[in-house]
Amino acid sequence: EFLQKPATIFPKHIEFGKIARVWKNTQMSSAILNTVIMTGGCIISNLVVSCLAGFSLSKLKPAGWKIISKIIFIMLLIPMSMSTVPLFMFFIDLPIIHISLKNTFVPMWIMSGINVFNILMVKSFFDGIPESYVEAAQIDGASNMKIFTRIMLPLSLPLLATLAIFAFTANWGQFFWPMLVIDKQELMPVGLKIYLLKKDLPIDEYMMALLLAVLPIMIVFILLQKNIMKGVAIGGVKG
């Protein structure tokens, strides 16, 4: 019916049992679980590195922070294709310790953490927080980590929610790097699994598998789209 000519806008026959059959035959539950683990690690890595780096550059301002900020800006101009080969060589044979990170989610977690755009976004937001808050906390004897956890993070919750959603949507359907570093079937995330299923499934079941793969990200975006817009607006205004 999908391939017939002329094509029909609405299907004449609906088979709901196909959902369960595709879910079972394609082992989609295992792929989604792998994707949840991979994406969850990417979100945590992204938030931790972005917040700490943004706080350091905005409020602590260590020696050479201006040079570091310029280097970060320059990194935005470097195309991803230039770093693909060096990163792959790094992941398959870590220098000094000579450990391979193949068939793990660690490479994706590392690359998600080093997100230049998010670091600049967090720094811009922290720049908008009055210095008097930090100075008052320092007078009371608060350490830098306490200032970060008790003052900066609570004030930036809308922005952090936005960064988490961005990290989720960016990493849920990852294909390129999982294809390079993962070759075990039991570790494959959804993006790679869908690609490999293309040659094994008829087109109707393949379309159903695609729907099952993108459904979680559609639900997240529909439910949290207001948070995304709010967080982007706050980050822009504070900057």
Describe this structure in words.
The protein is mainly α. Helices cover 72% and strands 0% of the residues. The mean pLDDT is 85. Helix 2 packs across helix 9 and helix 11 runs antiparallel to helix 12.
Please give a handful of descriptors for the protein shown:
mainly alpha, 72% helix
Provide the low-confidence segments as ranges: none
Count the DSSP helices: 12
Average predicted confidence as pLDDT:
85
The sequence of SSEs as H and E is HHHHHHHHHHHH
Structural class: mainly alpha
- Helical fraction: over 70%
Number of strands: 0
* Gap between N and C termini: 53 Å
Largest sheet: none
**General shape:** elongated
Strand content: under 5%
CA-atom Rg in angstroms? 22 Å
Question: Quick gist of this model?
Answer:
The protein is 72% helix and 0% strand.
